């Protein structure tokens, strides 16, 4: 029974830390903020996680894992075309960011503060370079179907079109007086629109 209770408390602390870190970032978060969010005292938090640094490291690793979850399967699916992979990646990240809209701002701020940690723990570029998607892209370039030979330009275009609206949400909603439901509707529409735009940019008619 005690082990179950310990696990439950640990999970509650991690969930609270995730919420507070995502909202305030590492520098703006105090361990007391996390303890209050978790509904425990400060001594108990220190018992489970000895330092803010340790707890942040766990949250950051889990956040990165969530951010890249499922992408590897999409990149290396031999049964989907390049065009279908673009659609799946856009859908995957749009759905994730609708659930976790603070995720991209948190990641970008913390990665900018400590890029070495991100690179060391995130083999996404290596996975991309050796993926089925990269091979399909190179084949499309060789066949003259794609106008841009550098895959990284296309990756940046997809990332920008998907992620930037979530980073810019506070500014956009304030200027346009768009409520949360209307904004969510816009993001859902972009799940269809972004693949269309990317294909129009990339592929020759």
Describe the structure.
The protein folds into two domains: 57 residues, Homeodomain-like (Arc Repressor Mutant, subunit A); 134 residues. It contains 13 helices and no strands. 79% of the residues lie in helices and 0% in strands. The longest helix is centred in the first third of the chain and has 23 residues. The N terminus is likely disordered. The protein has 205 residues and is mostly helical. Helix 1 packs across helix 4, helix 6 packs antiparallel against helix 13 and helix 11 runs antiparallel to helix 13.
Which helices and strands appear, and what pairs or packs with what?
Blueprint: H1 2-24, H2 31-38, H3 42-48, H4 52-68, H5 71-75, H6 82-99, H7 103-113, H8 115-121, H9 124-129, H10 132-142, H11 151-167, H12 169-176, H13 180-202
Helix pairs in contact: 1-2, 1-4, 1-7, 6-11, 6-13, 7-8, 11-13
- What portion of the residues fall into strands of 2 or more residues? under 5%
Structural class: mainly alpha
Q: Kindly report the average pLDDT value.
A: 88
The value of Rg in angstroms is 20 Å
Q: In total, how many domains does the architecture comprise?
A: 2
Distance linking N and C termini: 64 Å
Order of helices and strands: HHHHHHHHHHHHH
Overall shape: globular
Q: Spans with pLDDT under 50 lasting ≥5 residues? A: 1-5
- Largest sheet at a glance? none
Helical content band: over 70%
| SS elements, strand count | 0
Per DSSP, the total helix count is: 13
Oligomer: single chain
């Amino acid at each position: 029974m005690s082990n179950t209770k310990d696990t439950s408390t640990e999970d509650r602390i991690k969930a609270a830390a995730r919420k507070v870190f995502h909202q305030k970032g590492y520098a703006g978060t105090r361990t007391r903020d996390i303890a209050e969010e978790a509904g425990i005292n400060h001594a108990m938090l220190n018992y489970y996680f000895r330092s803010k640094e340790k707890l942040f490291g766990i949250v950051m690793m889990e956040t990165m894992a969530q951010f890249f979850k499922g992408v590897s399967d999409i990149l290396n699916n031999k049964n989907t075309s390049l065009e279908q992979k673009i659609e799946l990646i856009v859908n995957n990240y749009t759905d994730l960011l609708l659930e976790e809209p603070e995720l991209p701002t948190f990641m970008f701020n913390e990665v900018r503060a400590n890029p070495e940690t991100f690179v060391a723990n995130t083999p996404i570029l290596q996975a991309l370079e050796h993926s089925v998607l990269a091979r399909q892209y190179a084949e499309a370039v060789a066949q003259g179907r794609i106008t841009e030979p550098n895959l990284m330009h296309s990756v940046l275009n997809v990332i920008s079109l998907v992620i930037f609206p979530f980073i810019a949400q506070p500014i956009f909603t304030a200027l346009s007086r768009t409520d949360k439901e209307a904004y969510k509707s816009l993001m859902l529409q972009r799940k269809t629109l972004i693949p269309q735009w990317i294909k129009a940019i990339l592929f020759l008619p």
